[in-house]
TrEMBL record:
InterPro entries: BphY/WalK/GraS-like, GAF, GAF-like_dom_sf, HATPase_C_sf, HATPase_dom, His_kinase_dom, HisK_dim/P_dom, HisK_dim/P_sf. Keywords: ATP-binding, Kinase, Nucleotide-binding, Phosphoprotein, Transferase, Two-component regulatory system. GO terms for cellular component: plasma membrane. Its EC number is 2.7.13.3. It is an enzyme of class 2 (transferase). It comes from Labedella gwakjiensis. It catalyses: ATP + protein L-histidine = ADP + protein N-phospho-L-histidine. This is Sensor-like histidine kinase SenX3. Its main location: membrane.
Length: 398
């Protein structure tokens, strides 16, 4: 073998090992779904033993078996290792008469006394052979074409089960990471929030506030906003921990919801001199805290980007009924979002190209998660005001 050929084979084995590791079955306890498939294979082929073999660069690992205890052997001793790449699907009436297997320890009696042998390769969606679904028996026998074809189909089912488990595991890890991220954000926000709340409480109780009614009113407004923020942090953390799939659903007065949002954004609205128009006289259905967080994010973004455009900010919040629910939009007269970037800005940590505004860009990704959990959709269009129109459609029944 040439050096170049050795490098190619090594690269293939590394790729195979990586594919095997992604399934997390080697070294793990046998799974019931895989054991059911090997039982079905043994019954279908009328044999005493069946196994699912995973074959890496050094060993054959039996990850599920019937008629024997799962075990491992070296790749050199494996019967399946000789054929799982080429020719792939194999049926042998009597392994003693096949030159590929006649001297194998599973045939000679050193390990077992295999006579009938059949196997079908396990091939990943990327086309990587990682092992076999194998059936064998101590008696020589033939396998009719229909049963042989069924064994191939069962091998495909094994890969489907492995893929489903891999995807489910990845989703679980993703949800765990989301929960950890939410927990860290919650922790980071709670500490300064508790400090602010404490100072507000002290200031509100101060004797000086008796003769300063406007200051007392402002402090009461700030204290109320801090309480709403604390509830929002708690609810968003709970939403993340359950995987972003279980929002509460209650009737919500949309105009009241928007009014609460504008109250929380009172300071930036005053600072920018923005005009905010609200036309949303509807009762919608959903989680008030979560949808409030979405609306607050959209209005805050509209304020932020309109302010940097140099124009006097104008924000319009509109809602109207659609066939299956409501469409809520937040329009602004800012620079807008280029059409090519309108999908990308919903990705976690993404920001529009040329965005000079501070922020990590986590807002719109969270908004999409919340809206989709309600069974709705969210997107960006051009606004009649000249900027962006960010909209969400919420179903009346999710």
């Amino acid at each position: 073998m040439t050096v170049e050929g050795a490098r190619v084979r090594t690269a293939e084995e590394i790729t195979r090992r990586s594919a095997i590791d992604a399934y997390e079955v080697v070294g793990a306890p046998p799974r019931a779904d895989l054991e059911s498939l090997v039982q079905l294979a043994a019954t279908l082929c009328g044999v005493s033993k069946a196994v699912i073999n995973i074959i890496d660069d050094r060993f054959q690992h039996q990850v599920a078996a019937v008629g024997m205890e799962p075990a491992s052997c070296t790749r050199e001793d494996s019967m399946c290792a000789r054929v799982f790449q080429r020719p792939g699907h194999v049926t042998v009436r009597d392994a003693r008469l096949d030159e590929r297997f006649a001297d194998n320890p599973f045939v000679t009696g050193e390990v077992a006394n295999v006579r009938f042998y059949a196997s079908s390769p396990l091939i990943t969606p990327a086309g990587i052979p990682i092992g076999t679904l194998c059936v064998f028996d101590e008696d020589a026998k033939d396998l009719d074409p229909h049963t042989s074809e069924a064994l191939k189909m069962l091998a495909h089912q094994v890969v489907d089960v492995l893929e489903l488990h891999r995807i489910s595991t990845e989703l679980e890890k993703s949800n765990e990471q989301l929960a950890q991220f939410a927990g860290q954000v919650s922790h980071d926000l709670r500490n300064p929030l508790m400090a602010v709340s404490g100072f507000l409480e002290l200031a509100t109780d101060s004797p000086e506030m008796v003769n300063a009614p406007e200051a007392a009113k402002a402090l009461a407004r700030a204290e109320s906003a801090a309480d709403r923020m604390a509830r929002m942090i708690t609810d968003l953390l709970h939403f993340a921990r359950v995987g972003g799939t279980q929002p509460r659903r209650v009737p919500i007065d949309l105009e009241d919801l928007v009014s609460s949002v504008l109250e929380d954004l009172h300071a930036p609205i005053e600072q920018t001199g923005a005009t905010v128009v609200v036309d949303a006289p509807f009762t919608i259905v959903g989680d008030e805290t979560l949808l409030g967080a979405v609306v607050q994010n959209l209005v805050a973004n509209a304020l932020k980007f309109s302010a940097v455009s140099g124009a006097m900010p104008r924000i319009e919040v509109h809602a109207h009924e659609v066939s299956a629910g409501w469409r809520v939009s937040v329009d602004d007269n800012g620079p807008g979002v280029p059409r090519a970037q309108r999908e990308r800005v919903f990705d976690l940590m993404e920001r529009a190209v040329g965005d000079e505004v501070a922020g990590l860009g986590i807002g719109l990704s969270t908004c999409r998660l919340i809206v989709q959990a309600h069974g709705g959709s969210i997107g960006i269009d051009d606004s009649a005001l000249g900027g962006a129109s960010v909209w969400m459609v919420l179903p009346s029944v999710a």
